[in-house]
Amino acid sequence: MPTKEESHLIKTDAVIAEVIASVPSPQIVSTNNVFHDLMSCVLEQQIHYRSTKKVFEKMLAKSNLTLLTLDNFSVFEKHAFDGIKLSAKKYETVLNIVEHWKEHKVDWEKLTDEAVISELSKIKGVGKWTIDMILLFTLQRPNIFPYDDFHAKQIMTQLYNLDAQTKLKAQMVVIAETWNPHKSTAFRYLLAWKKWTQKNRKR
Asked: What is the pTM of this model?
């Protein structure tokens, strides 16, 4: 039985309807920890829910940690960076996040999407894509679509036969508006479809 989000997408978009019919429902168990997931995005250039290289996971293992917090960051800093090539810009962003957490106590769950964007944008080095990942995966907000995401562009170009050379984002926006107010579910299904097709090609 489709969820209300799936039912809406099935009714409004035939392409997504086919995707929903062909792949398992994407399940995400969030850490609910914005600090941890921000560090994942910065250090791995990918949020760990989507990672295949597991760089951040390995860094945590080296530190004997499962969840990175401000309180245990000193332990992480001591052990995790050994043997890891990290640009000065990335390390600066990591320190900016730590400093922001020291200075600001935020109840992320109570903030609107716009307030989350505003708060995280104050941290130098944290960009739009990273904020979208936090909204999507950590806070699991229902109506987020990361138009700047490389995989989103690639998948939508393929599924919707879009012209990648001509105002691709504008084309994506038009399609994604039909998913409103369940853009997040649509995005997760697009990722699930890519993973499913790659897995089936290898068989």
From this structure: 0.93
Instruction: Evaluate whether the domain defined by 4-27+145-201 bears CATH number 3.10.450.
Output: no
CA distance 123 to 7: 38
pLDDT in tens, 52-64: 889 999 999 999 9
| Domain boundaries, given as residue ranges, for the chain | 4-27+145-201, 34-138
